[in-house]
Amino acid sequence: MTKFIVTAITLFCLVQTVFAQSKLDSLLPVRGFCIAAPQPKQLDTFIKFIDEELAPRQVNTLILRVDFNYQFDSHPELSDSIALSKREVKKLVKVCQKNNIRLIPQINLLGHQSWASTTHNLLRVYPDFDETPHVKMPDKYVWPNADGLYCKSYCPLHPGVHKVVFELVDEICDVFEADAFHAGMDEVFFIGDDKCPRCSGRDKAELFAGEVTEIRNHLAKTNRKLWMWGDRLIDGKTTGIGMWEGSFNNTYRAIDLIPKDVMICDWHYERPDLTAVYFATKGLSVITCPWRKPDFAVTQTQDMVKFRKSVTPLMKERFQGMMQTVWSGAGPFLDEFYGVKVNTDAGDNTQANCFKALYNEIKRLNEAQ
């Protein structure tokens, strides 16, 4: 009899857990967190963070911006000098699988091949891939500048670039046991340059859409999905959103040219703009992504839930959820989150506070259902 009671209680608890999870998934299918992959020395603290902070908040998607922070077998010349090993990545895979968190790696493709005065590994090792080799990296970076240099891009039409980057993509997806890949592709200012022997005179929207499609089609060969940032698909001039969260170089027209199964990560950090509706009406699935303003994160979460409740069943499935973004390294974020180092000048507007506010609001809205 006692054994029967214990079994019944266990079954009841299991049913309750499944019901609660189903309820939350109905509210927001994707509950994400995006951050740079930790350095090896930060790995144990980050795993603790996944176990003790992400999992209890029922985060179900973790995007790690890996870039060259991995000891690649396919292209060891592109790995950072200090980088995660396969064994260390498998620790991340294990803790995510234990907590039912979908793990998605990111390598910045097309844009963000440099930062400030530093050329990143791909163009440093393979300078022929550079879309704008005539633009030289300054000793001291300032914006604005005469060259319009924000970040370098690789040339999407270079005959050798995809062999290299796709070998990186395949390897990182395999080691992370991932069914999706995040290609970045935000803030692309250099594309279709007039001095590029391959891209000159070509339509920038078609170039951008072509690269999105090329990446998507490559991933589809192994049944993986493409995720990307959405800013280059927004008309920054007509909307007034501007050149950072939208496009001033006409790539926005690519929204009508790319495959509809691409997941759009729609980021807005200075205003809670309602562009998720735009992406959904174009047939694309979309996730809204805050950064460091807790009040905006709350508003954006409420908007996303409202969208899902107020549209047709077909449209509802395109409004996929929310994702906190972190744009420091994992180490500084963890220091901030655990109170080791706090920027008192920022007040409440910090990444850690935004993360807490976002998931507190998700919890409140779920309980109110």
Automatic annotation (TrEMBL):
A Pfam cross-reference name = Glyco_hydro_20
Q: Which GO terms describe its biological process?
A: carbohydrate metabolic process; glycosaminoglycan metabolic process
Under the heading InterPro entries, the entry gives: Beta_hexosaminidase_sua/sub, GH, Glyco_hydro_20_cat
The highest taxon in the source lineage is Bacteria
Q: Which UniProt keywords apply?
A: Hydrolase
**Has keyword RNA-binding?**
no
What is a GO molecular function of this protein? beta-N-acetylhexosaminidase activity
This entry's Enzyme Commission designation comes to 3.2.1.52
Q: Where are the active-site residues found? A: 187 (proton donor)
Write out the catalysed reaction: Hydrolysis of terminal non-reducing N-acetyl-D-hexosamine residues in N-acetyl-beta-D-hexosaminides
Any one GO CC term of the record: membrane
Q: Which residues form the Glycoside hydrolase family 20 catalytic domain?
A: 83-302
Family membership: Belongs to the glycosyl hydrolase 20 family.
> What is the name of the protein in this document?
beta-N-acetylhexosaminidase
In which organism is this protein found? Spirosoma endbachense
